[in-house]
Amino acid sequence: xxxxxxxxxxxxxxxxxxxxxxxxxxxxxxxxxxxxxxxxxxxxxxxxxxxxxxxxxxxxxxxxxxxxxxxxxxxxxxxxxxxxxxxxxxxxxxxxxxxxxxxxxxxxxxxxxxxxxxxxxxxxxxxxxxxxxxxxxxxxxxxxxxxxxxxxxxxxxxxxxxxxxxxxxxxxxxxxxxxxxxxxxxxxxxxxxxxxxxxxxxxxxxxxxxxxxxxxxxxxx
Length: 221
Hints:
By secondary structure, this protein is an alpha+beta fold. Helices cover 55% and strands 8% of the residues.
Protein backbone atom coordinates (compact mmCIF):
# COMPACT_ATOMS: atom_id res chain seq x y z
CA UNK A 1 0.00 0.00 0.00
CA UNK A 2 1.03 3.59 -0.64
CA UNK A 3 0.44 5.40 2.67
CA UNK A 4 0.54 9.16 3.19
CA UNK A 5 -0.27 10.70 6.57
CA UNK A 6 -1.41 14.32 6.61
CA UNK A 7 -0.36 15.96 9.83
CA UNK A 8 -0.15 19.10 11.94
CA UNK A 9 3.26 19.10 13.60
CA UNK A 10 2.09 19.04 17.25
CA UNK A 11 -1.23 17.21 16.90
CA UNK A 12 -1.45 14.37 19.45
CA UNK A 13 -4.05 12.51 17.42
CA UNK A 14 -1.73 12.37 14.41
CA UNK A 15 1.10 11.30 16.68
CA UNK A 16 -0.86 8.16 17.57
CA UNK A 17 -0.71 7.05 13.94
CA UNK A 18 2.99 7.87 13.64
CA UNK A 19 3.75 5.80 16.73
CA UNK A 20 1.99 2.79 15.26
CA UNK A 21 3.58 3.26 11.85
CA UNK A 22 7.02 3.28 13.48
CA UNK A 23 6.19 0.46 15.88
CA UNK A 24 5.25 -1.76 12.93
CA UNK A 25 8.00 -0.31 10.68
CA UNK A 26 5.50 0.48 7.94
CA UNK A 27 6.74 2.50 4.95
CA UNK A 28 4.90 5.81 4.83
CA UNK A 29 5.11 9.48 3.92
CA UNK A 30 4.13 12.40 6.16
CA UNK A 31 3.03 15.81 4.92
CA UNK A 32 2.72 18.61 7.46
CA UNK A 33 0.16 21.36 6.91
CA UNK A 34 -0.77 24.56 8.71
CA UNK A 35 -4.23 24.09 10.19
CA UNK A 36 -4.57 27.87 10.52
CA UNK A 37 -4.26 28.10 6.75
CA UNK A 38 -5.03 24.64 5.36
CA UNK A 39 -4.59 23.96 1.65
CA UNK A 40 -7.71 23.60 -0.44
CA UNK A 41 -6.95 19.96 -1.31
CA UNK A 42 -6.98 19.11 2.40
CA UNK A 43 -10.37 20.75 2.96
CA UNK A 44 -11.75 18.78 0.05
CA UNK A 45 -10.48 15.50 1.47
CA UNK A 46 -11.25 16.00 5.18
CA UNK A 47 -14.97 16.11 6.00
CA UNK A 48 -14.18 17.38 9.51
CA UNK A 49 -11.39 19.78 8.57
CA UNK A 50 -9.16 18.00 11.09
CA UNK A 51 -6.06 15.83 11.07
CA UNK A 52 -5.05 13.07 10.88
CA UNK A 53 -5.86 12.01 7.38
CA UNK A 54 -4.41 8.79 6.02
CA UNK A 55 -4.35 8.48 2.26
CA UNK A 56 -4.27 4.82 1.25
CA UNK A 57 -3.68 4.32 -2.47
CA UNK A 58 -5.75 7.44 -3.05
CA UNK A 59 -8.55 6.53 -0.63
CA UNK A 60 -9.03 8.72 2.46
CA UNK A 61 -9.36 7.66 6.09
CA UNK A 62 -9.98 10.05 8.97
CA UNK A 63 -10.35 9.83 12.78
CA UNK A 64 -7.32 8.57 14.68
CA UNK A 65 -8.97 5.51 16.26
CA UNK A 66 -10.16 4.33 12.84
CA UNK A 67 -6.70 4.80 11.36
CA UNK A 68 -5.12 2.87 14.25
CA UNK A 69 -7.49 -0.06 13.73
CA UNK A 70 -6.91 -0.05 9.97
CA UNK A 71 -3.13 -0.05 10.30
CA UNK A 72 -3.20 -2.81 12.90
CA UNK A 73 -5.53 -5.02 10.86
CA UNK A 74 -3.61 -4.44 7.62
CA UNK A 75 -0.01 -4.90 8.80
CA UNK A 76 1.09 -7.74 11.11
CA UNK A 77 1.68 -8.42 13.86
CA UNK A 78 -1.77 -7.60 15.21
CA UNK A 79 -1.68 -5.66 18.46
CA UNK A 80 -5.36 -5.93 19.36
CA UNK A 81 -6.75 -8.69 21.59
CA UNK A 82 -8.28 -11.68 19.79
CA UNK A 83 -11.11 -11.85 22.32
CA UNK A 84 -13.92 -9.62 21.08
CA UNK A 85 -14.91 -8.32 24.52
CA UNK A 86 -11.34 -7.44 25.44
CA UNK A 87 -10.87 -5.80 22.04
CA UNK A 88 -13.98 -3.69 22.65
CA UNK A 89 -12.63 -2.73 26.07
CA UNK A 90 -9.41 -1.55 24.44
CA UNK A 91 -11.38 0.58 21.99
CA UNK A 92 -13.38 2.07 24.85
CA UNK A 93 -10.19 3.05 26.68
CA UNK A 94 -8.80 4.55 23.47
CA UNK A 95 -11.84 6.85 23.48
CA UNK A 96 -11.12 7.61 27.13
CA UNK A 97 -7.55 8.51 26.18
CA UNK A 98 -8.97 10.95 23.64
CA UNK A 99 -10.97 12.63 26.40
CA UNK A 100 -7.82 12.80 28.53
CA UNK A 101 -5.99 14.55 25.71
CA UNK A 102 -8.72 17.17 25.55
CA UNK A 103 -8.62 17.60 29.33
CA UNK A 104 -4.84 18.09 29.25
CA UNK A 105 -5.21 20.58 26.41
CA UNK A 106 -7.76 22.54 28.45
CA UNK A 107 -5.31 22.72 31.35
CA UNK A 108 -2.34 23.63 29.16
CA UNK A 109 -4.16 26.46 27.35
CA UNK A 110 -5.99 27.94 30.36
CA UNK A 111 -5.26 31.66 30.52
CA UNK A 112 -5.45 32.20 34.29
CA UNK A 113 -4.25 30.47 37.43
CA UNK A 114 -7.66 29.59 38.83
CA UNK A 115 -8.78 27.81 35.66
CA UNK A 116 -5.42 26.09 35.31
CA UNK A 117 -5.62 24.66 38.83
CA UNK A 118 -9.22 23.56 38.28
CA UNK A 119 -8.41 21.83 34.99
CA UNK A 120 -5.34 20.19 36.48
CA UNK A 121 -7.37 18.69 39.33
CA UNK A 122 -9.92 17.32 36.89
CA UNK A 123 -7.16 15.77 34.78
CA UNK A 124 -5.59 14.15 37.84
CA UNK A 125 -8.95 12.64 38.80
CA UNK A 126 -9.41 11.26 35.29
CA UNK A 127 -5.88 9.83 35.19
CA UNK A 128 -6.48 8.06 38.51
CA UNK A 129 -9.21 6.00 36.81
CA UNK A 130 -6.51 4.25 34.78
CA UNK A 131 -5.08 2.53 37.87
CA UNK A 132 -7.67 -0.23 38.06
CA UNK A 133 -7.46 -1.47 34.44
CA UNK A 134 -3.67 -1.20 34.62
CA UNK A 135 -3.56 -3.28 37.81
CA UNK A 136 -5.80 -5.87 36.15
CA UNK A 137 -3.44 -6.08 33.16
CA UNK A 138 -6.18 -5.02 30.77
CA UNK A 139 -3.87 -3.15 28.37
CA UNK A 140 -1.15 -5.77 28.09
CA UNK A 141 -0.75 -8.32 25.32
CA UNK A 142 1.83 -10.82 24.11
CA UNK A 143 3.38 -8.29 21.74
CA UNK A 144 4.25 -6.00 24.64
CA UNK A 145 2.55 -3.04 22.97
CA UNK A 146 -1.11 -2.30 22.27
CA UNK A 147 -3.23 0.27 20.46
CA UNK A 148 -4.08 1.71 23.87
CA UNK A 149 -0.35 2.37 24.34
CA UNK A 150 -0.20 4.18 21.00
CA UNK A 151 -3.32 6.17 21.82
CA UNK A 152 -2.21 7.42 25.23
CA UNK A 153 1.53 7.97 24.71
CA UNK A 154 1.00 11.47 23.19
CA UNK A 155 -0.80 12.48 26.38
CA UNK A 156 2.11 11.41 28.57
CA UNK A 157 4.55 13.26 26.32
CA UNK A 158 2.60 16.52 26.67
CA UNK A 159 2.29 16.11 30.42
CA UNK A 160 6.05 15.59 30.59
CA UNK A 161 7.00 18.63 28.51
CA UNK A 162 4.50 20.94 30.16
CA UNK A 163 5.96 20.09 33.57
CA UNK A 164 9.40 20.94 32.18
CA UNK A 165 8.09 24.32 31.03
CA UNK A 166 6.61 25.06 34.45
CA UNK A 167 6.81 23.03 37.67
CA UNK A 168 3.27 24.09 38.53
CA UNK A 169 2.09 21.95 35.64
CA UNK A 170 3.41 18.75 37.23
CA UNK A 171 0.43 16.39 37.16
CA UNK A 172 0.00 13.89 39.99
CA UNK A 173 -0.43 10.33 38.75
CA UNK A 174 -0.85 7.09 40.70
CA UNK A 175 2.30 4.99 40.65
CA UNK A 176 1.00 2.45 38.09
CA UNK A 177 0.09 5.28 35.71
CA UNK A 178 3.40 7.06 36.22
CA UNK A 179 5.29 3.81 35.58
CA UNK A 180 3.26 3.28 32.39
CA UNK A 181 4.08 6.80 31.28
CA UNK A 182 7.78 6.26 31.91
CA UNK A 183 7.86 3.02 29.93
CA UNK A 184 6.10 4.53 26.93
CA UNK A 185 8.21 7.68 26.86
CA UNK A 186 11.35 5.52 26.70
CA UNK A 187 10.06 3.58 23.71
CA UNK A 188 11.81 4.38 20.41
CA UNK A 189 8.57 4.51 18.42
CA UNK A 190 7.25 7.18 20.79
CA UNK A 191 10.45 9.23 20.92
CA UNK A 192 10.70 9.22 17.12
CA UNK A 193 7.03 10.08 16.54
CA UNK A 194 7.53 13.86 16.72
CA UNK A 195 9.82 16.37 15.05
CA UNK A 196 13.17 17.06 16.71
CA UNK A 197 12.05 20.53 17.79
CA UNK A 198 8.70 19.35 19.16
CA UNK A 199 9.21 20.87 22.62
CA UNK A 200 9.88 24.33 21.15
CA UNK A 201 6.92 24.04 18.79
CA UNK A 202 4.63 22.91 21.59
CA UNK A 203 5.65 25.75 23.88
CA UNK A 204 5.28 28.31 21.09
CA UNK A 205 1.78 26.99 20.42
CA UNK A 206 0.82 27.35 24.08
CA UNK A 207 2.24 30.87 24.22
CA UNK A 208 0.13 31.74 21.16
CA UNK A 209 -2.93 30.51 23.08
CA UNK A 210 -2.10 32.79 26.06
CA UNK A 211 -1.35 29.83 28.31
CA UNK A 212 -0.92 30.96 31.92
CA UNK A 213 1.64 28.21 32.46
CA UNK A 214 3.80 29.58 29.63
CA UNK A 215 3.11 33.26 30.19
CA UNK A 216 6.72 34.27 30.89
CA UNK A 217 5.69 36.73 33.60
CA UNK A 218 6.71 34.82 36.68
CA UNK A 219 3.93 32.24 36.47
CA UNK A 220 5.55 30.45 33.53
CA UNK A 221 9.06 30.20 32.13
